[in-house]
């Protein structure tokens, strides 16, 4: 309720021209926070216990978020007399009225574009959630200790900070759909290599760094692209529908990877399944065509 959906939706309502860059920056903020605070909280839990650490976290982060939400952040620029992107005046039609997309949720769910995005967002979650859940154990399987294998999570997270921002900028410049396709095709090829090529801890480290960069390139583009297709008015509800698919479909990734490892003693087949998931996501995104705009 306070994480990815409302933050991304609010960002999209404030920006149109640079929506990809802004979304990439906010997703990069998640990566920065994870890289900085997860090791810190782990260390605090070891020193003070998880209960004390949880209480400190609740007050430190919770109060800061609530204060920002109450006194700084606003839902839309129009709510305080401004316009998206800091524009001096709103774009107008020939009749002089403001031109704004006005798709309702009911209208959007009747379009193939929304459901193609739903499929793509859900399917790409299977390999990535599977990887995140099992990356440490994969490292242990290749010879690392449990404590040392945590470095693989850092290897996925840290390099992605730059590519998340870069992916947003590229999406604004060259088209969000195009960058999404390129990013997931790249991930498909990486998983194809991992299927046969990852046999040592050194290979896994290289794979972790590069797959993190590939996944993060299009990671922040779904919400801006939704806004391009259906407008800003109901972007929160529409992105919520996509995340529902991510939860139900992508959330199965960790279970699928675990079941495959239990049956085969290896993650190779899980990588091959991930290739198929990325292929479905790429096909779904490739089939999306522009919607017919409705003006308010």
Please summarize what this structure is:
The chain is mainly α. It contains 13 helices and no strands. It has one domain: MFS general substrate transporter like domains (Growth Hormone, Chain: A).
Give me some keywords for this one.
single chain; 296 residues; Growth Hormone, Chain: A
- The tally of structural domains comes to 1
State Rg.
Answer: 21 Å
Looking at the structure, the CATH topology is: Growth Hormone, Chain: A
- CATH H level: which superfamily? MFS general substrate transporter like domains
Quick one: how many beta strands? 0
Mean pLDDT rating: 90
Summed up, the helix count is 13
Plain-language structure description:
The chain has a single domain, classed as Up-down Bundle (Growth Hormone, Chain: A), CATH 1.20.1250. Helix 7 crosses helix 8 (176-197) and helix 8 packs antiparallel against helix 9. The protein contains 13 helices and no strands. With 296 residues, it is mostly helical. It starts with a helix and ends in a 10-residue tail after the last helix. The model is unreliable at 93-99 (pLDDT under 50). It has helices spanning 4-14, 19-48, 50-71, 105-108, 112-141, 151-157, 160-174, 176-197, 201-216, 222-230, 235-248, 253-264, 268-286.
């Amino acid at each position: 309720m306070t994480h990815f959906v409302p933050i991304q939706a609010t960002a999209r309502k404030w920006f149109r021209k640079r929506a990809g860059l802004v979304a990439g920056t906010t997703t990069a903020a998640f990566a920065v926070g994870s890289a900085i605070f997860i090791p810190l909280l782990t260390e605090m839990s070891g020193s003070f216990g998880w209960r004390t650490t949880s209480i400190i976290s609740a007050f430190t982060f919770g109060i800061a978020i609530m204060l920002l939400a109450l006194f700084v952040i606003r839902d839309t620029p129009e709510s305080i007399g401004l316009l998206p992107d800091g524009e001096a005046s709103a774009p107008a039609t020939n009749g002089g009225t403001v031109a704004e997309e006005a798709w309702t949720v009911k209208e959007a769910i009747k379009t193939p574009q929304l459901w193609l995005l739903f499929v793509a967002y859900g399917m790409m979650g299977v390999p990535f959630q599977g990887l995140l859940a099992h990356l440490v154990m994969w490292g242990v399987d290749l010879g690392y200790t449990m404590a040392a294998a945590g470095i693989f999570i850092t290897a996925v997270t840290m390099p992605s900070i730059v590519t998340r921002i870069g992916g947003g900028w590229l999406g604004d410049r060259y088209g969000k759909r195009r960058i999404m396709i390129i990013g997931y095709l790249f991930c498909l090829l990486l998983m194809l290599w991992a299927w046969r090529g990852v046999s040592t801890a050194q290979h896994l480290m290289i794979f972790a760094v590069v797959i993190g960069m590939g996944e993060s390139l299009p990671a922040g583009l779904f919400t801006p692209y939704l806004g391009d297709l259906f407008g800003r008015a109901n972007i929160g509800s529409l992105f919520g529908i996509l995340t529902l698919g991510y939860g139900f479909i992508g959330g199965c990734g960790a279970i699928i990877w675990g079941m495959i490892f239990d049956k085969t003693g290896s993650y190779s087949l899980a990588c091959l399944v991930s290739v198929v998931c990325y292929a479905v996501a790429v096909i779904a995104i490739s089939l999306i065509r522009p919607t017919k705009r409705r003006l308010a």
